[in-house]
Amino acid sequence: xxxxxxxxxxxxxxxxxxxxxxxxxxxxxxxxxxxxxxxxxxxxxxxxxxxxxxxxxxxxxxxxxxxxxxxxxxxxxxxxxxxxxxxxxxxxxxxxxxxxxxxxxxxxxxxxxxxxxxxxxxxxxxxxxxxxxxxxxxxxxxxxxxxxxxxxxxxxxxxxxxxxxxxxxxxxxxxxxxxxxxxxxxxxxxxxxxxxxxxxxxxxxxxxxxxxxxxxxxxxxxxxxxxxxxxxxxxxxxxxxxxxxxxxxxxxxxxxxxxxxxxxxxxxxxxxxxxxxxxxxxxxxxxxxxxxxxxxxxxxxxxxxxxxxxxxxxxxxxxxxxxxxxxxxxxxxxxxxxxxxxxxxxxxxxxxxxxxxxxxxxxxxxxxxxxxxxxxxxxxxxxxxxxxxxxxxxxxxxxxxxxxxxxxxxxxxxxxxxxxxxxxxxxxxxxxxxxxxxxxxxxxxxxxxxxxxxxxxxxxxxxxxxxxxxxxxxxxxxxxxxxxxxxxxxxxxxxxxxxxxxxxxxxxxxxxxxxxxxxxxxxxxxxxxxxxxxxxxxxxxxxxxxxxxxxxxxxxxxxxxxxxxxxxxxxxxx
Length: 574
Description:
- There is one protein chain.
- This protein is α/β, with parallel strands linked by helices.
- The chain has 4 domains: 4-123 and 257-326, FAD/NAD(P)-binding domain (3-Layer(bba) Sandwich); 137-254, FAD/NAD(P)-binding domain; 340-461, 3-Layer(bba) Sandwich (FAD/NAD(P)-binding domain); 470-566, Oxidized Rhodanese, domain 1, CATH 3.40.250.10.
- 28% of the residues lie in helices and 24% in strands.
- It has 17 helices and 29 strands.
- The strands form 8 sheets. Strands 3-2-1-7-18 form a 5-stranded parallel beta sheet. A 5-stranded parallel beta sheet has the order 9-16-10-11-12, with helices on one face.
- Helix 1 packs parallel to helix 8 (312-326).
- The longest helix has 15 residues, at 312-326.
């Protein structure tokens, strides 16, 4: 008999490591322990089960060849023993043993190990407010709760849903409740924008507008203060610091924390944020104990700082690396850049690397390139506008992050996936300039959107392009008296500019079409700062370069142009 390997946690990283060890060391005695009876399921698929895209919960627990990943599957197909409904209580590092308890019988026993893997996952954040114990209040962290949520909705017991938390799970659950079931949905986020740690406000605002356009009430900068209930103990609403929202169900999606109590009590190194500290081999401070998945922190390969990234994709990779090292193969997991993508109704939003806010907090002299090109050749019938935000460091020209927002499909995914390995290798603006992307009109433009974003970043970094901050532009549009020295110069066609001239007057909005500027530029005022506007920003930049040459230096380009503005929550568009 080979070494004894005990794995605690059987959702993602744990099963991956367990079967990897058994595959590499056929004589190993591998035991998989979990406190639940549902194991090895796709937790990221829970919103799609609630929405009906996944019709049966067994599909989340099944292989591609339709075998349910249960105790029998692991024992018969993988040769891995399992103990479900069993909780690990303590680790005796000196004796190399784990004390466990059967949650059905209450029986306790000590299980010896040669190598131990902690894949204990994460716990949902339970807000410290009254009412969290009411019936109809759920966190969205396991399959049992998903089944209960869907069952209540399907039986017609829910008409109004309040979702606490504007992260990915909260947004996906809001969509699931609205899109399939037609429920009245309110989404409450404590911070100033959705997906606050994943994208910057411009991308988040586009997402918020799209959710609102699809009937989801989005309330930002609102904290939940109390969950309301009736005398029967059922939820009736949610109170925030600004309003009271009627609700038959409240979903708490306020984030997760690494589940590291077992490791901490065993004396293993745990970070300030509560994550288990591991090295590149997924080894803890005890060389016989490994950890992987949502309970650990990893290295951010852009900033070098530590990153808590509870993602199923990373958990599976970490589980494989842990399995390799347990079996004697020296594999490494260097870290990640937090690559992320999600759908929301007909759109997708994704990111990799640092946001502008995170980059500046990490000490970078960070700036952004904001672009809004076509996702494929402009002449192809199905082309659509996409928006990209590239974060870069002015000093080193290093690209720090990429964010994208656009139609549902593989376009955003392809660019995030292309950017991620470049970010991992410390790529510069010039590397993004020259990256080769496959081209065909139905799929992309000849100058790919990644190249275009980098071109704009290069122009900004080298001082050739002077862009106005979007928030500053929006502030001016709401209060033109704040900058009496500014004028909007619209270089689109007269037809496109006319509604804006009618709305704002020629004293504020000037029209001079792109192809007439070289002949008529002297009609422009020299004593004003001209904010140049077009649809995507490319014509505005060209006009800025020309005006610089003819001694009109006081110009600013609206980055991304009206394509960006139309996708934001603005109320002044004619």
